[in-house]
Amino acid sequence: MSVAPMMDWTDRHCRHLHRLLSRHALLYTEMVTTGALLHGDVPRHLRFGEAEHPVALQLGGSEPADLAHSARLGAQWGYDEINLNCGCPSERVQRGAFGACLMNEPRLVADCVKAMVDVVDMPVTVKHRIGIDQTEDYGFVRDFVGTVADAGCRVFIVHARNAWLKGLSPKENREIPPLRYEVAARLKSDFPQLTIAINGSLQTDAAVLEQLALVDGVMVGREAYHNPWWLTRWDELFFGAKPGTLTREQVEEEMVAYMEREAAAHGTHWYAVARHMLGLRNGLPGARRWRQVWSDHRLKHLPAREVMALARIRPA
């Protein structure tokens, strides 16, 4: 089980929350481009807390040498896995000639994977779609996986939709192209030696268990973000561990303590952390008011602990 890399969402503050809720789920960074690591602030992009392990670094890029350099940085910073993004369909990513459009160049992806495998001693994995635009050809994704596997990739995370490179926004690309879960199962049948995980609108225990009977892993994206309390069941259901004992109130207190540490160490405002936990009380009485307090910009001048106290006041 893993939480998907999601731009603007799965930063280190979000991952800290998710790790409180599940001890075993694999967590992913947002996609970090090779350009950001070659020319930008490396600590800002790669810093993470030791408590986040296991945590994977997702890279975006298409130049083997640049990806090798970035993978080496990821290894030096202590990540547990390097993942190559071959699934993002945004026009900005396409202009950089990486993301989903890389599926049209499996030999290049293979060269990228080999360049990273050669310089790091950790898994190098690929997250990809099942096709490009509206052509539903199983042979396309089968040959892509086979070519990239020959370069040393042993783990493929399959977003079970095509990526339409023209005419759809990234949001629409997560909703309009039809889901075809059977493609991931077929890949597992054709490549039994590989680890195949599936991604794409899986939102319930039953849906996850159904897929785990067919493939090796499940990656959950927006449902994990919007309803993070679901993660508290994962360790028991999917990893065979004892159930966690934390309450939502204890998680909130842990997050406030984290906010205080972040403010002291890095000058991070609590508001940047709190936005990731707004779904923590989804479905409970008073959740709407609690969420409104934690997202009220007029309270930004208050310490996080005082905001928590305000959020817990029950209306008369």
Question: How does this structure look, described?
Answer:
The chain has about 325 residues and is α/β, with parallel strands linked by helices. It has two domains: about 240 residues, Alpha-Beta Barrel (TIM Barrel), CATH 3.20.20.70; about 60 residues, Up-down Bundle (Four Helix Bundle (Hemerythrin (Met), subunit A)), CATH 1.20.120. It is built from 16 helices and ten strands. The protein has an eight-stranded parallel beta barrel with strand order 1-2-3-4-5-7-9-10, surrounded by five helices. Helix 1 links the parallel strand 1 and strand 2. The protein is globular. The chain starts with a strand and ends in a 5-residue tail after the last helix. The mean pLDDT is about 95.
Report the mean per-residue pLDDT as an integer: 96
CATH superfamily placement of the largest domain: Aldolase class I
What's the Cα radius of gyration? 20 Å
How does the helix and strand content classify structurally? alpha/beta
Query: Any guess at the CATH architecture of the largest domain?
Result: Alpha-Beta Barrel
Determine the CATH topology of the largest domain: TIM Barrel
Number of strands: 10
Site (Interacts with tRNA): 85, 171, 174, 288, 291
Keywords: Flavoprotein, FMN, NADP, Nucleotide-binding, Oxidoreductase, RNA-binding, tRNA processing, tRNA-binding
Organism: Alicycliphilus denitrificans (strain DSM 14773 / CIP 107495 / K601)
Active site: 88 (proton donor)
